[in-house]
Design a protein that fits this description.
The complex is a heterodimer of chains A (243) and B (148).
Chain A: H1 2-11, H2 26-38, H3 43-57, H4 64-84, H5 87-100, H6 114-123, E1 127-133, E2 143-148, H7 152-169, E3 179-180, E4 187-192, E5 195-200, H8 202-208, H9 210-215, H10 221-224
Parallel strand pairs in A: 2-5
Antiparallel strand pairs in A: 1-2, 3-4, 4-5
Helix pairs in contact in A: 1-4, 2-4, 3-4
Chain B: H1 2-9, E1 42-43, H2 48-51, E2 59-63, E3 75-80, E4 83-91, E5 107-111, H3 138-142
Parallel strand pairs in B: 1-5
Antiparallel strand pairs in B: 2-3, 3-4, 4-5
The chains are: A alpha+beta (243), B alpha+beta (148).
InterPro entries (chain B): Ribosomal_uL14, Ribosomal_uL14_sf
GO molecular function (chain B): structural constituent of ribosome
Main location (chain B): mitochondrion
Chain lengths: 243, 148
Amino acid sequence: MLKSCVLSGCKKLGSLVLRRSVLPEQAGVFRSVCSIPRGASHGPCSLRRLAPSSAACQQRPHVFTACHLETRCYSEVNRENSHSEKDTGVSSEESHERDGDGAPSQRPVDAFTIDVLVSLLRQENAVDMCVIKVPDQIKYTEYFIVASGISPRHLRAMALYAIKVYKFLKKDGDRNVKIEGKHSEDWMCIDFGNIVVHLMLPEIRDVYELEKLWTLRNYDEQLRNIPPDKLPEDFIYDVDITK
Amino acid sequence: MALPQLSRSLTGLLVGTSSIIQQRTFGVSPVAAAIQKMTRVRVVDNSSLGNTPYHRAPRVIHVYTKNGVGKVGDRVLLAIKGQKKKALIVGHKMPGERMSPRFDSNNVVLIEENGNPTGTRIKVPIPTHLRKLEGDFSKVLAIASSFV
């Protein structure tokens, strides 16, 4: 059902639709989504061209996410194909790709992993993205991502898009999709269980220096500059309470 | 080590204190309600507002909960250095759930109106069950250096 809705939605776009009569198998679609961010050079230009098409796609909100992902990959497949400048060559390559995959075996984006999030942020032109793998001793999270944005609107757009993709790929597991700091203009964070994303403006990023803290845990300079605490003289330890 | 045992046996009369004052003549009742109006709190981040000395300790003047009692993760309004500031409770002396940390002081982290912490680092251990509570705590957890 989803596929048919997506197809009809994409037919509305007209200009950007595939030149070849290749049916968008879902495997093919997601494969190109995965492959595009690695060839990240096409990223910025394709995004800008996409703006009118994704605006058209918004008329169908319930398939927005699927359509969004598909249109991005279609235009990028087109762009890449046009760069290669060989119509027959490319079509054969594409069919080759499809056949090489065998039956439409899903190597699609199944779960919301760190790779999905990083490629998503790269697509959104996140500035200075820093992914830190948190060691297991710190029982907080597995991956800690800090990214900058150009303006408060950019941060909000990145956060909302990440939430949208998460909701699309969510199974019946984790249910936290809250953006913390939605009203603040300079710092937003999202906690996805095993990943935590912080989206900040560059100025406030320099104030807090989260990457320094999370890489040099106890050797961080701001921590060391805190003068050691002394107990006040009349500090009272409590009577031992056992409930 | 010996001192708490001693204080348990002579309930309330002799209280464990620092070495300067050996004996007090009053008793100390166990904590009844966690953090409410007029409690003196300890600011545990490295903000200048929380760390510059003042002749009055920071006090809670309002607790933003339905009842006036604040537990870990609740916001409060403090009076610090003659000004009002919002803060987040990160630990209190009152025992909470079993197997959850209890602190020896009522700890608080200063916060702005939009939820950004005023200080940039927290040296004191922060309880990790903050994450499961409803509220915006990721920012405070991000600047914490140790967890309990």
